[in-house]
Amino acid sequence: MNAYVEAQTLIQDTTPIHDAMNLTSGGSLARIVLNGQVYSLRITRAGKLILTK
Q1: 34: buried, middle or exposed (CB in 10 Å: 19+, 13-18, 0-12)?
Q2: Distances, alpha carbon 8 to alpha carbons 2, 13, 18, in Å
Q3: Positive or negative, the Cα torsion across 34, 38, 39, 41?
Q4: pTM for the complete prediction?
Q5: Is the dihedral of CA 32, 44, 24, 18 positive or negative?
Q6: What confidence tier does 23 reach under pLDDT thresholds 50, 70, 90?
Q7: What's the rounded Cα separation, in Å, for the pair 31 and 9?
Q8: CA 20/CA 40 separation, integer angstroms
Q9: Which carries the bigger pLDDT value, residue 13 or residue 6?
Q10: What pLDDT, on a 0 to 100 scale, did the predictor assign at position 4?
Q11: CB atoms < 10 A from the CB of 23, how many?
Q12: Strand segments (E) across 1-53
């Protein structure tokens, strides 16, 4: 898939997009609350995301 096709898909999709680096304030960990439950979003050294309860 090329960048143009991906960009067109993003333009048509109304799903919110959030930058993980912004969520972690430039660090590697963010806490996310959903229905009173706290989850941890971690960015690994390999650049992957892990979401745990």
Answers
A1: exposed
A2: 10, 9, 18
A3: positive
A4: 0.70
A5: negative
A6: very high
A7: 29
A8: 12
A9: 13
A10: 62
A11: 16
A12: 29-34, 37-43, 49-52
